Each structure stands twice: as structure tokens, then as C-alpha cells.
Amino acid sequence: ETGAYTYDSGFSNTAAGFSNITYIDGANGTLRMRGYNLHDLVKHCSFREVAYLMVHGTLPSKNELDLFSKYLTEHSLVHEDMHHFFAGFPSDSHPMAILASMVTSLSSFYPDLNQEDSNFDITAARLISKVRTIAAFSYKKSKGQPIVYPRYDLYYCENFLHMMFGSPVRKYEIDPLHTKILDKLLILHIDHGQNCSTSAVKLIGSARANLYAAISAGICALWGPLHGGANQAVIEMFKCIRKDNNDIQKYINMAKDKSNPFRLMGFGHAVYKNYDPRARLAKELLDELFQKRNITDPLLDTARRLEDAALKDPYFQERKLYPNIDFYSGILYRAIGIPTNMLTVMFALGRLPGWIAQWKEFCDNKGRIYRPRQIYTGPGERPFVPIDQR
Ligand code: SDX
């Protein structure tokens, strides 16, 4: 991660600082996964292919992709006993709370995935597949609807939409354009170097806790509104602005006011000091979907006006603040039927292959346990005072 900032995470041991997975040039807005430009991967690949690339380091041959897809299909069910967990959550539970809990519980049902000797191809495919199923089940739980089991004749993204929007009384009709948009959106989120949630995954992994525990920590970190939770916060911000007479300038002024905790959600980035290439690609997908389906979304009008006003404002220009991945992704997910409370779950589904790849790379490199250092700023030594004298 070059250019935008020098970042001493305190994780100074080498395994934390070096990686051959994702290259980000924050100053120029460049993003490459395993050497491939993100634009090419989004244009030419399915999410399955790029997930394989992240975990294995190379794009799959046709046979390799078929085998990986077979693993994804064969491992799409979750243990029936896990269904009882869903019943225990309050109906208004946030799906990220359910996802994090259920992923941790996978280690109780699939202990072999913790062992070094397990076939990592299957390990990765099984986790990617089951987390997708858990995500769809958590949505059904939030809607009070019966869960819909995966189908073995559908690929990853089609199966997810089938489990999300199908029902025992109405078959989900596969929409190839929605499947394509979902495929591409998940690729846009697939990895992003040493971000907050990936750091959490590697930190837990550095203690040699199992992969589920590490991924569950990544899910929890991603939930934060300054990180992956921003995509939900962006949609809520757009809705607030529209309810507030679409007063764009009021929110620009609030974001500039240091005494106000409000930040323009979906804007700014710790690394990009240029337009986030993923936001640009998300806009292109939006234009394609909206033109082909002749649809509109009033939030898109608000988004475009907010972006335009912010990019013209000296406060944002001086600080090199641009739209990031979360600014447009929520509108795109809405357009294929994904509700606001599921947006960060979608980010987690996309990021999962990247987390797995980063965890594996760290463990393969025998990274040392993370032990960031602190600078002590507390009082000097003090004589003890018994409680009856305090
Ligand atoms: C993701 O790390 C990754 O790669 C993350 C991610 C990934 O794929 O994993 O890309 C995903 O998390 C994207 C970011 C999603 N979060 C948001 O959209 C929340 C809104 N953005 C801000 O909170 C902020 O921009 C962050 C959290 C993203 C970055 O925080 P930083 O690194 O502290 O921001 P900065 O140092 O670049 O800020 C510089 C200045 C500061 O003002 P000054 O002290 O110089 O006066 O810009 C200001 C900041 O206050 N600023 C903003 C702002 N973002 C930064 N002011 C108003 N609105 C904003 N959105």
C-alpha cells in the first residue's frame, strides 16, 4: 500500500507488513489482485474465479474452476442443528450479529477445518459456501420467512439469490443480470490489503486461533460504520437528506464542521487520496443496470448531487476526499433487491476469500503473534494508600 500514508500499525513484525495478494496505489487509485488489474477481473471473471485466484494465487483453469465450484456446491448446506440458533435470535437482530455468531459456531460442527492437514481447497470453498448460506438464512430470519435450502444445480451467486428471494410457495426465477451484478459487486469487495477487518483476521490468526474465530473477528470489525458498516450508513444518510428537503449543502457543511461528529459516509479513505477505483466501477455497473432495466432510484439522484457538491468544495479537495467503495455500492445492491440491513453482510461475503487468503498467507509465513507496542503516558510510581485512608 504505497503513497497515501506511512502506516505503522504497531504490527511491526514482517509477516504483518508484507503480502503478495493485493497491490494498492492510493495516490493514483490503482488496485490489483495477485497482479491482475481489478478492472479486468470485474470485466472478465465470475466471483468464483476471483475467489479461487485470491486463495490459490492463480486464475483457475476450466477444470480447476469446475472442481472449486463442485466444492462450493457440495458444501452449501449447514448442519441442521445450526438452524436452532436462528430461532434464538430476536427477530430484529442485525444480520451481522447473526453472521459473526454462526461463523464462530462452525468450529463446533466442522472441527476438521481447524486441522493443518485438511485440504485447504475444500476448507476455503466450504467456508465461502456456508457463510453465503448463513447470510441468506439470517435474512430469512429477519423477515420471519421460512429458510430456503440451496440448490445443487445453481452456482454461487444464483444460489444466494435463490435462497434470499425464493420461498416454498414461489420459485425464484433466476435473473441473469442480477446474478451478473452480484458477481461483480462481490469481486469489487474481495480484498483490500491491510484494512481494519483483515488486520483483525490476521491478528486472531497470529495467536493460531482457528480460521472460524479469525473470520468471525473480521466480520465484527467490518461491521463498524467507519469500515464496512459505511455502506449501510451511506443509504441511511441519503434517506436522511431526502427527508430533509434534499438539503445537500446542509450535510456538506455538517461534514466540514469539526464540532459536529457527522462525517460524509462513503467519502474519504485511509489509503486512497484519489477516486476509489471500486467506486468508479460500481458507478459503471449502476449505469448498466439502470439503463438495461429502465429503473431509477431517488437515492441515486441524491448521491450524484452530493458527490458533485463535495468534489467542488475546497474542504474535500484540500483533503483529497473522494467517494469510496461504499458510496454507490448500497444503491446497486438495493436495485437487485438486497435490503439496507444486509449491505454489510454482502461486504463480508465479498471480502471472505480475501480474508481467507490473507490468513493463510500469514500462517504459511509463520507470522509471529501480533504484539503491538504502547507508549505509556500514565502517572509515575505512586505509594499504595489503603482504602480507609482514601
Ligand atoms: C472501507 O482500509 C480499507 O481499505 C477499508 C476499505 C476496504 O475495502 O477494506 O476500503 C473499506 O472501510 C472504506 C471506508 C468506509 N468508511 C466511510 O466511508 C466512513 C466515512 N469516512 C471517514 O470516516 C474516513 O474517511 C475514513 C474512516 C474512511 C478514513 O479515516 P482517516 O484515515 O482518519 O481519514 P483521513 O486521515 O484521510 O482524514 C483527513 C481529514 C481529516 O480532517 P482534518 O483533521 O485534516 O481537518 O479529512 C477529514 C478528517 O476529519 N475527513 C472527513 C471525511 N473523511 C476524512 N471529513 C468529512 N467527511 C469524511 N467522510
UniProtKB/TrEMBL annotation:
It comes from the Bacteria. InterPro entries: Citrate_synth-like_lrg_a-sub, Citrate_synth-like_sm_a-sub, Citrate_synthase, Citrate_synthase_AS, Citrate_synthase_bac-typ, Citrate_synthase_sf, Citrate_synthase_typ-I. GO terms for molecular function: citrate synthase activity. Coiled coil: none annotated. Pathway: Carbohydrate metabolism; tricarboxylic acid cycle; isocitrate from oxaloacetate: step 1/2. The active site is at residues 269, 326. This is Citrate synthase. It comes from Chitinivibrio alkaliphilus ACht1.
